[in-house]
Each structure stands twice: as C-alpha cells, then as structure tokens.
Amino acid sequence: MSTPTSSSPRTTASSSTRVDRRCTLPTFPATKTCVVCSQTFQALNRYQWARKMTCSPECAGRRISQSKKGKTKPLAERAGRMVPCAICKTETWKPDAWLKRNAEAFCSSRCNGVRRAEELVKHSHKGRAAWTDASLESYREKMTGPNNPAWKGGVTVFKKHGNYAGVRYVRAPEWARPMARMDGYIMEHRLQMAVLCGYLLTSQEVINHENHDPKDNRPENLTLWPSNRAHKLYEWGKMEEGASCRLPESRQTSWTMPEWCGASPSRTARSSPDAMG
After folding, report:
1. Which tens digit of pLDDT belongs to each residue from 199-248?
2. SS3 of the chain
3. CB 93 within 8 A of CB 80
C-alpha cells in the first residue's frame, strides 16, 4: 500500500481552511415566508425560526390537511353507517367500532349534554341541595363534637418551629369567642385564666408558665401579666413599676377543665360564665 503523497486531498487542506458547518442565525426578529400562502411573518427567536413554518393557525391547519391528503379513506369506504341522533333525530355517521361500545349516538356535544343532564337529574336527591331542615339538623348532630368520627377530644396542639413545645388549643365556649381564633379554638391556658379571673383577657395581657411547660396549665402554674414586657422582666428577676401578677388572691387551686371546653361552640347550653362552676 502506497503512502499518501503531498498531493493527496487529506494533506492539502490545512487547519486554517476548515469549513464551519454551524448554521448562522439571523438577527431577531427575522422574516420568514409562509409555506402555504407565501406571505411573510416575523420569527421572534431561534425556536420560531427553526420550527414555525406558517404565518397563522389557519395556515397551520391547511398545512396539516395537505399532509394528510390521500392518506385518509373517503367516508364511503370506511366501516360505519348513518344513525339517527338520540335527541334531535339528525342523521349522523358513526364508525362500527364506536357503535359497538355505545348504545346511543349523538350528532353534537349539545345533544350529548342534554342526555347527561337527564341522567344527573335522577341523582339530584342525593346532594345537599335537596336537604331539608330536619336532615341538615341531623347531619350537624352526627358530625358535631364527640359524635364526629374524627373527634379527638376537642384539643389540638399547635407545633411551633424549632425546639419549642406545642401549645394546647381547645374549642371556646360562646362567651369566650372574642378571645378565640377564627376557627373557634382558643389557647387552653388563656381560657383557664379567663375562668379564674372572671373576665375576658385583652390581647396585650400575657400568661406565664412558672415551670416553662406550655402544656402544664394547672392554676398554680399560671401567672397573668399586663404586657409581654412585664412578663419578660419578671422572668429576668426584675419588676416593672406598677406591674404585678393580675391573678386574684382568691384563685382556685383545684380547678379542672370544664366539660364544655371540648364541645362545639354551636352548643350554647353551657355557654355562659355562670356555668363555669
């Protein structure tokens, strides 16, 4: 085998004369010609320059139709027949395979919707729109408080971020709803303090847990302060002038959570402060 000579094409082409085969993109927006109507349109980026071939959705549909021309069988050669619409009796063509799967044929989605509406009317009595006052009251009784299958005693624990212990929330009675959240739950220690003091607490008043356990809501473990500043100074061994624990001297030491604290706020039989006992 002879070795390549200096006149061989492989050796005559130098590295400085290599052909750059990469496509040079124009400056956008660039002008293209529609392959259907031959009108010009603007390509705004390189994706439209590479993929967009038509100027409008109408031309895109015509281009798809032209690509399918000759590939689709005429209607007379297809396996199917003309059948009447089940609603308006208009003759419409349906394939045999479609007729095997469906008992009725419809000429349009409108007629199909009419039949579907007739079927839905048969089940309208199952929805809440057909409920009576007696059925609504029965439902509320079955799904309220301990009767609800998801009932967990009316107590929920709000877990904060970090290593802080969660705070216990209970369902608030009607008289304590001004202190509760929008969903009717209130912090258990604030509800207990309101019962001990005999009045509703303001949003500025703060309750301190002496052992720093937010779940230990015994009366002897709670103290009430007029502001969070006074509360923090007390924890640091200081006392703000004019501020002291606002809990009455005659507070109860054997107080327990009343039964209504776990009940639904809708039950107003035990919703007055006189029922605190």
Report:
1. 899 889 999 888 888 888 888 889 888 888 888 888 887 766 655 555 54
2. CCCCCCCCHHHHCCHHHCCCCCCCCCCCCEEEECCCCCCEEEECCHHHHHHCCCCCHHHHHHHHHHHHCCCCCCHHHCCEEEEECCCCCCEEEEEHHHHHHCCCCCCCHHHHHHHHHHHHHCCHHHCHHHCCHHHHHHHHHHHCHHHCCCCCCCEEEECCCCCCCCEEEEECCHHHHHHCCCCCEEEHHHHHHHHHHCCCCCCCCEEEECCCCCCCCCHHHEEEECCHHHHHHHHCCCCCCCCCCCCCCCCCCCCCCCHHHHCCCCCCCCCCHHHHC
3. yes
Q: Which two tokens stand for residue 67?
A: 């690509």
Domain boundaries, the chain: 26-66, 77-121, 154-276
Token pair for residue 173? 């009675």
Q: Are 225 and 205 in contact (CB under 8 A)?
A: yes
Whole-number Å distance between alpha carbons of 227 and 207: 9
pTM: 0.41
Which tokens is 80 given? 């199917």
Give the closest residue to 49 by CA, choosing from 71, 83, 25, 22: 25
C-beta of residue 67 within 8 angstroms of C-beta of residue 49: no
8 A C-beta contact, residue 167 and residue 254 = no
Which stretches in the chain have pLDDT values below 50?
1-2, 6-16, 19, 248, 250-277
Sign of the Cα torsion 107, 108, 110, 116 reads positive
